[in-house]
Amino acid sequence: MKAFFDLVKKDKHNLGLPNLITLVRLVFLPLIVYFISKNTMKTDLLATLCLCLSGITDYFDGYFARKLKMRSELGRMLDPVVDKITVGVIMFFLAAYKGLPYWYVFMVIARDILILVASLHIISRIQKVKESNLMGKYTLVSFLAVIVFYMLELEPYNRYVMIISAILIPFSIITYFRIYKSVLIEKFNSGR
Q1: Using an 8 Å Cβ cutoff, are 29 and 85 in contact?
Q2: pLDDT at residue number 145
Q3: What is the structure's pLDDT at 160?
Q4: Cis omega before residue 170 (within 30°)?
């Protein structure tokens, strides 16, 4: 953890526009779960709208980081952490109010915790934050599809999307750990 904070302290773009946009995504989270808890067609649509607005900020934080040349180590870590918090919290509310199976929610959260712990280990070893991979992005898209399909109660398709997403979870874990292993091997070999 100290290695991550050391990286963050050195970075001049920590308080830049991209990281502030990333944090704005957390503002949408209480609204989304409030609307889910009301459990009406109107509030389901409002929850979906807030999720879409949150997704737009997810696009723009990356866009501005590239366009303004304000990429930061904090942003590389903050973006996926905010995604994981958003997905986990929303899924718990969907389990409580919309019938999303708890076993699936725990699978998603366990995956995210594993990846987060492994990422922190990698950061402590190589002093750099690795960006997410394509399989990780596909898996996140599958999580968002599950959220939208359960939010709008699109039966039976919500269960089909959830099953596809559940199948992707182990593949995404394996992909991440292969990348982490290769990074550590490369670091070990270059340190000789």
Answers
A1: yes
A2: 96
A3: 97
A4: no
- This prediction has a pTM of 0.85
CB-CB contact of 105 with 166 (8 Å):
no
pLDDT at 176: 84
* Cα(82)–Cα(62) distance, integer angstroms: 13
- What does residue 173 show for φ and ψ, rounded to 5 degrees? -65, -45
Given this model, what pLDDT does residue 9 score? Answer: 60
Q: Which residues of the chain have pLDDT under 70?
A: 1-15, 125-132, 187, 191-192
Q: How many domains does the chain have?
A: 1
Distances (CA, A) of 183 to 97, 118, 119, 176, 189: 41, 12, 11, 11, 10
Which 3 state secondary structure label does DSSP give 72?
Answer: coil
**Domain ranges, residue 115:** 2-190
Is the CA virtual torsion 134, 31, 62, 183 positive or negative?
A: negative
Contact 180, 118 (CB under 8 A): yes
Give me the CATH number covering residue 107.
Answer: 1.20.120
How many Å apart are CA 183 and CA 189, to the nearest integer?
Answer: 10
